[in-house]
Amino acid sequence: MKQLEQDVRPTVWAEPTQQNPFGFLSEIISFVSKTLVIAELEIRKLRHDPTELLTRAVQPALWLLIFGEVFTRIRAIPTGSVSYIEFMTPGILAQSVLFVSIFYGIAIIWERDLGIVHKFLATPTPRAALVLGKALSAGVRSLAQAIIIYVLAVLLAVRMNWNPLALLGVIVIAVLGAACFATFSLIIACLVKTRERFMGIGQVMTMPLFFASNAIYPISIMPRWLQIVSRVNPLTYEVDALRGLMLANGQMTYGFSVDLLVLIVATTILVIIGSILYPRVAV
Amino acid sequence: MASPILETHALTRRYGSLTAVDSFTLSVAEGEIFGLLGPNGAGKTTTLKMLTTLLPPTSGEAKIAGRDIVHQAREVRRLIGYVPQMLSADGTLSGYENLDIFGKLYDIPRAERGKRVSDALEFMGLADSANKLVRDYSGGMIRRLEVAQSFLHHPRVLFLDEPTTGLDPTARRVVWEHVQRLRQDFGTTIILTTHLMEEADHLCHRLAIMHLGKVAAIGTPAELKASIGGNGVTLDDVFIHYAGDTLESGGTYRETVRTRRTAHRVG
Fold first, then answer.
1. What is the reported pTM?
2. What is the C-alpha separation between B161 and B86, in angstroms, rounded?
3. CA within 20 to 30 Å of B242's CA: A16, B177, B208, B224, which one?
């Protein structure tokens, strides 16, 4: 029989609570820093394998080059002061951000099958920081999409707005849009839990989100019921803001502050729901 | 004896009509290596998930270093380390990055973090592979990295869920040596699940044999052997005596798929 001898005491034990001189404030600082650690983790992964970013550039390129070029010639869609290709460029940025983010949940299911999720959930990291950190990293991925769309737009002679403040606005909106749909995707993943079901549902979600929005045609030409659907779709507000910010003579229907507010509120609600559902993934 | 580091009282978890863990009562002293044995589906992993705060118990209670696993979950999480049965290191990051990220999540101050990470890599014999991507590691190296990851913050209790499943005998021995050294050097209490009798005999001070969610027997390996009649008895005999009648069932299709897939990835 093995003896249970008392060996050397360790020098530093883990402490059950952190020293907490500022209470609530330090909670917030801790939340923000944990969120950034999770985002950093995802960005480090991306740095080890950046090919993913390039393969994801193919789809928006095809939309702009084929769909965009053809529909510009048809002139069937009323786009106001801008040409159709200009009208759709911000829509395609929003679309490619949506397509990248909406399948984000597949990574959650992958990590669940591996056991990575369990390990993170057993750390003292706040649940909301785990969810928001992942959402932010989706935002960083979306910036790569934005750069690609800008390059394509210049090649297609789209007149862009190069005002630094407008560019900053595009970054904010793209990151928020990605975070919003990535969190939505995470929620779906937490509910369905298997890869096969998720792929099916992901496909089904993408179509209405994309087509029931102002991404490639104005809401005004839609039937009444579809207009209502489009108005509750966060993608509409993302596209609206991007259209105003990206184009040299772009206009917003709802205004930047409304667009921004809708995206922030939607993302916050989704992150709250996500952080309730995420721990159940490990069960 | 000092107050136990881990204490459970009638810990129970039900899934619908199935009782996965049934009134599990246990007390583990600080510095013990304690093994949970049992066939697949006996409730070992469910027990571990409850103790690591991943799964709320249906009834009963458990305390780690005096903190309740439900009401003081975040404090408990600071005190424990957990290596899941499945592969939990991130293959797309280097070994160093895997550890560094966890150092940050456990609030190890920047000044100390670098040293802790390099010490941990050294301790686990991974210093030479620190900057290699984990997907190029061998199964044994991944397991040691995972143990290092869960130990970075010097937890009082370390939970290992089938730490050597899918490893070859050599890699298995290396993992055992490291687990024993963790206990010797840091006095860490270690709770592990296994269905390898050799592992239980070699590593654990005390064992609980679980059967259909209940503790069928508990004691030191020697006590358990003595309990079924002394001479020439092996732990295999003990296991079959207490949990034998479910041996043929061997878990569901889904569990088998998962176990084999994990074994494949780790090995």
1. 0.87
2. 8
3. B177
